[in-house]
Amino acid sequence: MVELSPEHLDTVFHALGDSTRRRMLHDLAAGERSVGELAAPFDISLAAASKHIKALEKAGLVRREVRGRSHLCRLEAGPLAEAHAWLAFYERFWTDRLDVLERLLREDARKDSQSEAQKGAKTSEGDQR
């Protein structure tokens, strides 16, 4: 796996930072689409759709091929794997933090149970007198 340069990773995250482009990538995951097909779910012109596709191309996430008068796009998932690998570091960070939180909550619940049991025992003793 070739690691992306920080500048290229910035370009990938910039491309992913827009909901229209994320939806286009999602649609491309199902297979090749024309620019018109990618623009169809949105209330945007073909020129605006083309600008979004250019941002995806710049990030290496999309490859556009011209066939006659049609511009067909396909997903290039390699940069997504690199972005995922970068995010995985933080996934481990949060998983570790959540594991600590879970342990503390379990300890707190155990202490509360013991405290309630002790209160119940004292109440039972008082009732017997």
From TrEMBL:
This is Transcriptional regulator. InterPro entries: ArsR-like_HTH (IPR011991), HTH_ArsR_DNA-bd_dom (IPR001845), WH-like_DNA-bd_sf (IPR036388), WH_DNA-bd_sf (IPR036390). GO terms for molecular function: DNA-binding transcription factor activity. Residues 1-95 form the HTH arsR-type domain. Residues 109-129 are annotated as: Disordered. CDD domains: HTH_ARSR. Pfam families: HTH_20. It comes from the Bacteria. NCBIfam families: HTH_metalloreg (NF033788).
